[in-house]
Structure formats: C-alpha cells, structure tokens
Amino acid sequence: MGVLVSQTQAFAPTHRLLGRVSRRAKNSEPHPYDFRRPIKLSREHTRTLQIAYETFARQYTTLLTSTLRVVSQVSLVSIQQLTYDEYISGLANPTIVATLTLDPLPGAAIMEFSLSTAMASIDHMLGGPGGPQIERPLTDMELPLLRDLLNRVLDEMHYAFESIADFRPMLGAIDYNPQFVQAAAPADAVIVASFEMHVGSEECIMTFCLPFTSIFPKLQGNDNDVTLSDSQRRTREEAHRNMVAALGTTPIEVSVRFDSVELRPEQIVRLEPGDVVPLSHAVTAPLAVTAADIVFAHAVPGSQGPRLACLVVPTPLNETENQ
C-alpha cells in the first residue's frame, strides 16, 4: 500500500531547518577582537571588583557627608577595561588628577574628578555654601585641605580592597592636565571604575584607574592555595632544582673597587694624562668586591703570576655594623 505525500508536507521540515540555520547565522556575526588586550576581565572578576567598589562608594559617601556637612552621594556607574591612552583621552581638561602609588603592588593608579567639585568641597570645609565655583588652580592654602580629604578617601579604598589585595594607596602629585600625567605606557591595559558623585548641588563623574597587570593576578587568587597532585609537585621540584643548578653555573661580572670620589664637571673636563686624582680610600682599608653594585666581600690587592689578583679578607668591623 503506497503513501502519497504532498509537496508541501515533504518540504515543511526543510523550511523549518533552514529557518533555524538562518537565525543561527544571524546570531553568529563576527565581533571585533583587540589583539592588544588578549586577556579580559571575566564576569567573576568584574563582580569581585564591583563588590569592592560599591563598598568604597558607601564609605566615601559617609566620609563626604560627615566631613563637608552637606548631603553627598557616590554611586558606582561602570567598570571598564581600557588602554591608558583611551582613558586619558576621555578626561576633561582641566580636572583634578591625583596620582597614587599602590605599595607594595607595582604601577601607579589615578583618581580623577572635576575641578568644580573639588572647589565646592573645599568651600564646604571652610564653612561656605558650596555651589558653582570658578575653575582655577588651587591656592597654597586650598591644596593641603584637598590632600587631607583625599588621604582619608584612600584609607576607605584600602578598607574596601582588603579582601582582594592588601595594598596601601598613597597620594602623590595632583595635576590639572591629564596629558601631563605619565602613570603608564599608552598601550598598557587599565581597569577604570566610574562613579557618579554628588556634593551638595555639584555633581560630576569621578574615575578611578588601576593598572591591569597589578590587580589582575590578585583577582585570580593566590597560586599557593591550589592543591597540587604528586606529579605536579614533582615537576615543580625538578624545575626548581634545574633553575638552582643553572644559576650556580651562570657567569657573573665581579668588580674590585676603591671608594668613590666626587669631582666637579669642570675638574673632569680638565683631566689630562699625568694628573693625580686623590682618592678618599684609606691606605689601610680593604677594597670592596661587588656584583651588580652590591658589596658582598672585601679584599686586598696583590698579584698571582703575571696577573693582578686580590685576596679576600674579613669584612671590616665598621662595614659589618653598617650592614
């Protein structure tokens, strides 16, 4: 018994399949890929930073309100991964650009907000009404007030980031032109957090820029906390032994030096063959044996066969006390 299938029924599944393929192709459009930033923040990393920055925003809000005695609000807006050049190019000029160190982490951070907000904050600290201010450089009396406020803000940043990394942000120079601040190379990756900041009637977008290479390893966690298998442990131990053995046979340039002497440029350019340069090195004092400008022994000069040589002697008592 034959079965008659209509043309519409035979091609209906094919139409549905083509529809699914077409929709899938539409969702698989190419996306731009930046080869300068092969490593990007994952959702987990962004969420970790978001918790820290929101904690910082709450602490900053409380600090501003209690210090300035005016209703203030700081709210996190976004977290982005940019290059340093992209970040600097997007800042206004003039603005407050505070350079920060992140001891013991390498690199420098930047805290930036509008000059008018800084002026309004200082006006509130001095008992004024705040409000719109004339944009101008801070005076010698106003700058210490702002630095004192920012130092207290950085204490709150230290508290907010304690769960991620134990670093102590320290305030450095304060500039007004972002183009003059060289905190990183133009192509270096940075993590930029943007905050909406209200101080009384004044409002602005405040940004906080962290070097990517400094904070990213901390977001990944401590490698020492990872449990290793026996094979992984043996591989690490063998690599350590190989490294120690290679370091033991690596040639290192060693120098034997007198104590240095200071000369003025005019004396240096007038030096001629036959001139005598008096040294500050005592006749009875041994010479310093150094490698990479590090003194690791002392010696007295002599000879061995046709070559000059030195005899290693005990370190002088005064040198031992200095070490």
Structure commentary:
It is found in: Bacterial flagellum basal body; Cell membrane. Belongs to the FliM family. It is a peripheral membrane protein. The chain is of the alpha+beta class and 323 residues long. The protein is built from nine helices and ten strands. Strands 1-5-6-3-2-4 form a six-stranded antiparallel sheet. Strand 2 and strand 3 form a beta hairpin. Mean pLDDT is 83; it is low at 1-26 and 223-227.
Radius of gyration: 32 Å
SS element count, helices:
9
- What does the largest sheet look like? 6 strands, antiparallel
Distance between the termini: 105 Å
* Shape estimate: extended
**What number is the mean pLDDT?**
83
Low-confidence segments, ≥5 residues, pLDDT <50? 1-26, 223-227
Subcellular location: Bacterial flagellum basal body; Cell membrane
Pfam families: FliM, FliMN_C
Organism: Planobispora longispora
Domain Flagellar motor switch protein FliN-like C-terminal: 247-312
Topology overview:
Elements: H1 7-27, H2 43-68, E1 72-83, H3 84-89, E2 96-103, E3 108-113, H4 115-125, H5 142-160, E4 168-175, E5 189-199, E6 202-211, H6 212-220, H7 230-248, E7 255-257, H8 265-269, E8 287-291, E9 294-304, E10 307-313, H9 317-322
Antiparallel strand pairs: 1-5, 2-3, 2-4, 3-6, 5-6, 7-8, 8-9, 9-10
Helix pairs in contact: 2-5
